[in-house]
Design a protein that fits this description.
By secondary structure, the protein is an alpha+beta fold. It contains eight helices and 14 strands. The longest helix has 16 residues. The protein is elongated and about 60 Å long.
């Protein structure tokens, strides 16, 4: 079992950070460079986030963003994306998007050309086509090979439970059995089976935007939507406070909305670091499948105006391999608990 999440948060008091600034959840340098170039050339923070995430979609970052990755149980790659304006609080998102490579672009089109927040599935594809996006196959030889090897391995791993035939031993089709007795299986959302680019941009005037893009969980049940396109789960932006974006076990994190909780906690507290700790203490016990005391081990390292802290593996995390939780902050001072 491997449950994890990685959350990136800005809390930016006026005058406390060197702006503009762009950051994302993983070292996707070309994506960061694309966003930075957009900002420096006069583009908005929304432009920057869109261009940065789009670069990852084109580059197929880690195989977990964009076309040709994370095939579902039918062998199809589908995309999720979201973008949020921290000034207006407007959001555009798409989920289970099919045959369109530029998911973040479609998400922005939802925000700017409809009164809606989230479009899903085939209808999202039809909307994208009406907005001028090109429909094309998202399958590649690589994703097809992943799918074929999965079938040869009796469809392991998969995400079914309380069904017959036994999902731990065979492929479907599955049927529900209310009385079936099956041992609790470990979750298979490991670090290689899914990922996301979560990006935050802030310009010289303090305008903030956040966005996400992913092809979701490998071998997911068709139609599954993770945290990435869900406001407050995948990302959140509020120019009066900051922004947050994250990656990890989306099915778990949607239950806690940690990005929104981080923002709102930080907004109500005078010490931004404490605002992050509150939702972390609520989420980590469930994340690791453990009952933890209210105060979990925290290690702080101070770098001028930046605080980086994480919950590292220790003896109470060994069985569950809950490896890390990292937050970047820009508070008035480097303050611990």
């Amino acid at each position: 079992m491997f449950r994890y999440f990685y959350i990136l948060t800005f809390v930016l008091p006026v005058g406390q950070a060197s702006l503009p600034l762009v950051v994302n959840t993983w070292p996707f340098r070309d994506a960061t460079a694309a966003a930075w170039s957009t900002l420096k050339s006069g583009g908005s923070v929304l432009d920057a986030v869109e261009k940065g995430c789009a670069r990852c979609e084109t580059d197929q970052c880690d195989g977990t963003v964009g076309f040709g990755g994370s095939p579902d149980e039918f062998g199809e790659t589908t995309l999720d994306a979201m973008i949020m304006d921290g000034d207006t609080m407007e959001v555009g998102a798409v989920a289970d998007l099919r045959r369109i490579k530029n998911a973040i672009g479609v998400a922005r089109a939802v925000m700017e050309h409809t009164d809606h927040t989230l479009l899903v599935g085939e209808s999202a594809t039809l909307f994208a086509e009406s907005m001028g996006f090109i429909s094309e196959d998202l399958t590649t030889n690589k994703s097809l090979n992943i799918f074929e090897q999965w079938l040869k391995g009796n469809c392991q791993p998969n995400y079914h439970k309380k069904v017959v035939p036994d999902p731990s031993k065979s492929c479907g089709p599955y049927k529900p059995v209310a009385t079936v007795q099956q041992s609790k299986r470990p979750r298979h959302a490991n670090i290689d089976s899914h990922d996301t680019i979560g990006m935050i941009a802030i310009d010289a005037y303090g305008h903030v935007a956040a966005g996400t893009s992913t092809n979701g969980l490998t071998h997911k049940v068709p139609g599954r939507v993770g945290d990435s396109p869900v406001v407050g789960a995948g990302a959140y932006a509020d120019s009066s406070v900051g922004a947050a974006a994250a990656t990890g076990d989306g099915d778990l994190m949607m239950r806690f909305l940690p990005r929104c909780c981080v923002q709102q906690s930080a907004k109500s507290l005078t010490v931004p670091l404490h605002g992050v700790q509150l939702p972390v203490r609520r989420t980590v016990p469930e994340l690791c499948g453990l009952f933890l005391k209210p105060f979990i081990p925290i290690h702080l390292t101070c770098f001028n105006t930046c605080v980086q802290w994480n919950v590292r593996r220790n003896k109470c995390f060994v069985d569950w391999m809950c490896q890390y939780f990292i937050t970047l902050l820009f508070p008035p001072s480097c303050t611990g608990v």
